[in-house]
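ESCALATION

Customer reports they have been waiting on this structure for their group meeting. Please prioritize. Original submission:
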Amino acid sequence: MEKSSKEFLVQLLETPSPSGYEVPVQNLVREYASKFADDIRTDLHGNVIASCNPKADLRVMFAGHADQIGLIVTHINDSGFIYTSPIGGWDPQQLVGQRMTIHASAGPIPAVIARKAIHLLEPSERKEVVKQKDLWLDIGAKDKAEAKEAVAIGDCVTLELGYQEMRNGLANSPGMDDKTGLWVCMEAARRAVKRGGLKVALHSVATVQEEVGLRGAATSTYGINPHVGIAVDVTHATDCPTIDKNQEGDVKLGGGPVVYRGPNINPVVASRLKAAGETADTPLQWCGIGRPPGTDANAMQLSRGGVATAIVSVPNRYMHSAVEMVSLDDLDQCADLLAEFVLGIEADADFTPR
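Update from on-call: job pushed to the front of the queue and completed.
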């Protein structure tokens, strides 16, 4: 991974972007894409579209969502404690005892989120599953007036952001879902342009609001009207305790990109991804999914008259937590795979299943 590419990844991960509040990350995307894209535009929804060779007739779209799960401020009580609602799918157990950041208009505000100490819990309370509505943010304010000077209703909240490298080329951070996929889409486009020979129009998109309904994918796909679309997201790594591989598949960190098969996947695209992996000498992991996935691919496939879609995923341990973990080698290989795939598409390629 080149130094500048890795710096871009870390910047993405350390910049807040809850669904609907993606602007800070999208600013980074525009700056990075300006180094290789022929055209960069931001649509009214907030999707950033980096286009390479845009005048070609056959259109290919890569989509990685810029948004992460978060919270939104809904109430400040008389004592200055702050209550929130979730943005996206949270397990409230993941929030207890976390350092948080409220992204206010005047700048970030440090906060903690907690419940009363275990010493004070009744025996019955210890057995209860924590509910989001029973958790509050504490910014150290002495009362409501002081809290309202710093925080406004509608401010977004994230876990305290931070990137940390570990053994064996692994790294953890909040927001690996799906800033890693966004990174792969932009990096694959950069690598394809650098190699040269692109025969199709490549639109690499940082989509918005995936975590609240695949919204950005729906609007950006409609606007681009691609023939082929690949959603790049994370998937569950199953190489840790308690996960049933019989149901979830055998997915390892460091095992390479995960490519899916199933009704959401165009078989021609899947076949070409397999061939691209062989050409690039990139190991692939395969998973099957028999239902509509919760990724941008679902919205892409059903746009207009239909799009030949596929899903390429980055293995991720501990998804939707403060310690999402990925392999940097997997990210590199995902970008190489997509670059090889798009460079191998002929100008008159046909992706109709036959």
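Sent to customer with the following note: The radius of gyration is 21 Å.
Escalation resolved.
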